[in-house]
## 1
Amino acid sequence: MMLEKLNPEYRFSSLVRITPEWMHRHQYQVLLTDIDNTLLPRNSSVVPEAYINWLGRMRKQGIAVVLATNNGGKRTAAIEKQLNDNGLQVPILTWAGKPFPRAYAGAIHLLDESHLADSFDTVMLPSGVLAAGDQLFTDVLGAHLYNLPAAWLRPLSQNDFIGTKVLRLLEKWVTWYLTKKEILPEEDEEV
């Protein structure tokens, strides 16, 4: 059923709650994550210090992070510059086209091209990749269409694009349905 495609395997209150230890415990080597309202608020181009530190910790503990966004342009370039200035080479797939599977294939391919994958023990297979984002209809659905497990995150701000605002209303209904069926994971479970 379509609604099950919208049900994440995990829920987190924040991206930084997905720790390297949690990733290792669940046998994930790669975190493919969204930018807007996941890594930083939608209209910001500055990655918060806590997330910079989190990215550094992920890298030091052998977890690759790939960013995929349906946006691009100067804002994404500013984010990439900030990450590079902090010694973080994080591949960013712009204009990704989530929820379509090509977005997830493109992000994994970008990781391979970045040569960051060379420092990981095994080949990047979908079984070692977790996708994360703040939207059910792009991030979770897209991950599931590409056969990846998904972590659904609470959005960093309520400032959304108009189309996203409509989807947020639908998310409330889906959340109600999944909760009623008792299949929606608890937030921050097993952290």
Note: The chain has one domain: 2-180.
## 2
Amino acid sequence: MTHNSDERKRWLALIVLCLGVLMIVLDTTIVNVALPSIRADLGFTETSLVWVVNAYMLTFGGFLLLGGRLGDLFGRRKLFLLGITLFTLASAACGLANSQGMLIMARAAQGLGGAVVSAVSLSLIMNLFVSPADRAKAMGIYGFVGGGGGGIGVLLGGFLTSALNWHWIFLVNLPIGVAVFAGCVALLQVEIPPTDRAKLDIAGAITVTLSLMLAVYAIVHGNEAGWTSAQTLTQLGISIALMIAFLVIESRVSHPLMPLHMFTLRNVAVANATGVLWAAALFAWSFISALYMQRVLSYSAMQVGLAFLPANTIMAVFSVGLSAKLVMHFGIRAPLSVGFLVAAVGLVLLSRAPAGGNVVLYLLPSMALMGLGAGVAFNPMLLAAMSDVSPDESGLASGMVNTSFMMGGALGLAILASLAAAHTGDLAAAGADAVAALNSGYHLAFLLGAVATTMASALAAVFVRTRTHGETQGEGESAASI
């Protein structure tokens, strides 16, 4: 009876942890549908609007590795509860925001809480389930939540924005956060943190986050200040100096946030490089597609949510099981490269969509191709990052590629959104129709995203080794080699 009770408690704990992760995943997509409403209500410009997304992504990516390290040192349960609390309170602040500054600061706090939750949730699940069969089931559920959460986010965002207003896309997190906190207190055992705590790399986290935030700020405001102005060049110069300081810190501290020696491993380096390029295209696509549908096609928020559904549904289906089967049959390299290439075709198709719009010929096929490409490529990208490292370093390698992914998304979104706005401004100044100029700017962003994704495909095809670390040690059966 006790065994059955403990078993039931473990699975209930998994549901609670996945609910917390779902809340974080939802927040990466639910906002995109409401962006035009937020823009109109708070008076954002086309370029400054990216900070609603980037403030979240930068703190999320900047503190993802540090959050995992804090969990190792002070207890994962404690950090998970702190992360959920911060995320929930920040969600309340976002929902009550009545100014640009308040919303952006609250979004940054959300990103910090989300980083902590994401960093320790997987470790908590791994500790809950030790048998291979149970762990495989648990990871399948966890993967489905991560893959399917995006689809739920765009639909929920569309419904809440249309039926109520954009404030509710954040306020909906409050009851979920309270339920997750209460469930974790009841179901997760209190951990005893280690007595010999290593020194934290706080300086590394601060320098890399400040460097990237300053770079994004300079890029976002480059159109207004001038790309060769003293302000823009100074900001970019300070950003580069901070990044150099980060690299120096990482090469000298005993417990670095991002161990540089990991980049000497071929698959780790390629996975991080492709992650940056892919994220740049993916986040720009998600952000600009929502604006395209509402500002060019005059879609409602709910229609935008429904339009994203094919991409997110296909992405979730492939992420859960089909992607793993492709890896088993073809290795890592082919699914990764082909997945990126399929997504690039979807972006090219979207870059040809006319201002009048044609859902059947352009929008639906491009959404389906983006979902297919992302669903096929995402798991192989994580596997590539971990295939050259020992099992005790797999969590670190996964955290590194996730960090590169978030940082690439933040910088890529800033660059592509700024270039799109600049191109639109030039055409409008030359006398072009406002909608046509806007559409042409979006076309440029989609096309550049396709170029970045094609580059990621080429890198994967040429440099990724398809064997795994286990195969190099002679363990297990080999996946089909390419």
Note: Residues 2-42 form the longest helix (41 residues).
## 3
Amino acid sequence: MPFHDEPPMVSLIVLCRNEQRTIEGCLNSIVNQDYPVGRTEVLVVDGMSEDGTRDIVRGFQTRYRPLSLVDNPGKTAPCAFNVGIKAATGGLVLFMSAHATYPNDYVRLCVDTSRRTGADNVGGVCVTKAMEDTIQSRLVRAMTTHRFGVGDAEYRLNASEGPVDTVSLPCYDRKVFERIGWFDERLTRNQDYEFNRRLLAAGGRIWCNPSIRVLYYNQATLGGLFRQAFGTGKWNPWMWFVAPYAFAVRHLVPGLFVVSLFLVLGLWFLVPNGWIAVAAILVPYFVLALLASFQQARRFGFALALPLPALFFTYHVSYGLGTLWGAVRLLVGATPVQVRKGRG
């Protein structure tokens, strides 16, 4: 996309709901960006928070004039995306999470990468941090920063620069929304992935630059991570139904893993030597889980190595069960739609 000598206007859209613990750190990092203040606007799109989030945002408004608090009465993520797009005036629209903090060169690197590559969407790498200084938070971090845990989600790993199928916290050329529409409000989860797959299907380009780094704070507890995995998995079948082009094998693998476990457990009870089928699946799985666990133990401490294999298993099974539950609900017509709208 061509740029003039003057830095382009960038709309920084912060999505939040009940983010009292993290919103202050997020906004502090945003207002300290080295990109020209006169060429940015900050739109905090809030899903009607019921904690102290809105009061914290209003406090920033008194010190940072280009910051606006925008209501998201729909309360879901795709509604927040679309509310932000409607309110934005910049030629570049950069979505940001209240669960993250941003180095002071973040916006500048996004703009520079967009200018250099001409990509429709650019982003970088999420450097996952522990939400709290607890064992559970460190275990969550260990599970979500290894390929065995998150598959080939390059933006969570050590990505190399180049074209990708999606990025976290995207920076879009505003013209993209004129070409392919807005975010699909039928998808409470996975709406960003669907949008990016739709962009690729329309001939667009998505670019990852690992120099663009975000400090992202994941779930604070193991229970929160497993519930998140189940919920994300549950939405996959509905996403594939309404947007078949968004299908990716990596999202199906946990569901297939759980199905295979059900099948071999049935064989165990129904046929002689059925335990061999169980071992054929679980032994390779736990060998890989052990290898991943010891690799992470070298990074985060060997005390984490003992529980990690079982936690990897629970994480993957939670995701897989969510996928199966979503498929069953879809088959019986119980769609998960909360907001019956299209793409805007």
Note: Strands lie at 10-16, 40-46, 67-71, 92-97, 100-101, 121-129, 162-163, 171-173, 206-217.
